[in-house]
Design goal:
By secondary structure, the protein is an alpha+beta fold. The protein contains two helices and eleven strands; from the N terminus they run H-E-E-E-E-E-E-E-E-E-E-E-H. The strands form three sheets. The protein has a five-stranded antiparallel sheet, with no helix packed on it. A four-stranded antiparallel sheet has the order 8-9-10-11, with no helix packed on it. Strands 2-3 form a two-stranded antiparallel sheet. Helix 1 runs antiparallel to helix 2. It is elongated, with a radius of gyration of 34 Å.
Length: 232
């Protein structure tokens, strides 16, 4: 009996030791990003992509809820890239005001807006022939937009050249939501209720069951001492 009790006490002590280690062991972080990669989102529609470290060198407004890849984060200006080299798309490098960006700690699935716009140029004057050459279509990569004197312009590129084309209305596109806080999502690091991981909760439950088994075993195995005047 004493030997069995010693074995049970040893088992419980081992379980308690394991639980102590697991309680203070950090849970694995899910979806962690590579440290060398940093992205920032244009949360509003007026985040400018600049040609130089000057607010007077505005090129275009980044499509809202899309990202820039941050190459160097500065106190006032951050060196950034937008889009990536994948024909017909070509990345551009410039600057953004650091305070205008919202930096994130993950690599977004859809950081850039890949869109092309097609423009038809109509030649002035009436054609004497069949009109085969009275107009021409050109397709450009869309980067962003700006307004100048009330006129909307798209900043576009083609074959390594960049310029503005007039537009009648802004583009519509699907917005990103991955940077928004989600109160329904599990806490970072894969933790669930009360800050404990699923493994830790299971082990705590097993330990509680083990303690209960010991208590029941001891209760059933204990013999009541006979009274002093008992005679067998």
């Amino acid at each position: 009996m004493i030997f069995v009790m010693k074995r049970i006490i040893t088992l419980c002590a081992a379980l308690i030791g394991i639980l102590s280690v697991l309680t203070f062991m950090p849970a694995p972080v899910l979806g962690a990003r590579a440290e060398e990669t940093l992205y920032a989102v244009a949360e509003s529609a007026d985040v400018w992509f600049l040609e130089t470290e000057s607010e007077d060198s505005k090129l275009f407004c980044i499509p809202r809820t899309y990202y820039v890849k941050v190459l160097s984060k500065g106190e006032k200006f951050s060196l950034c890239e937008y889009l990536r080299d994948s024909a017909p798309y070509r990345k551009v490098r410039g600057y953004c005001l650091t305070d205008s960006l919202k930096f994130v700690d993950f690599v977004p699935v859809r950081p850039f807006l890949f869109r092309e716009v097609t423009v038809e140029y109509v030649l002035p004057g009436a054609s004497l022939g069949d009109g085969k050459f009275s107009g021409k279509e050109e397709t450009f990569v869309y980067y962003g937009y700006r307004y100048e004197n009330g006129q909307l312009y798209f900043y576009v590129g083609k074959n390594g050249e960049f310029d503005y084309i007039p537009a009648d209305e802004e583009l519509t596109f699907e917005l990103n939501t991955d940077f928004l806080p989600d109160p329904e999502a599990p806490a970072a690091g894969g933790k669930i209720s009360d800050g404990l991981s699923a493994v830790q909760i299971v082990l705590i439950t097993l330990a509680a069951v083990a303690v209960l088994v010991v208590a029941v075993f001891v209760a059933h195995g204990r013999k009541t001492a006979p009274p002093e005047n008992f005679e067998p």
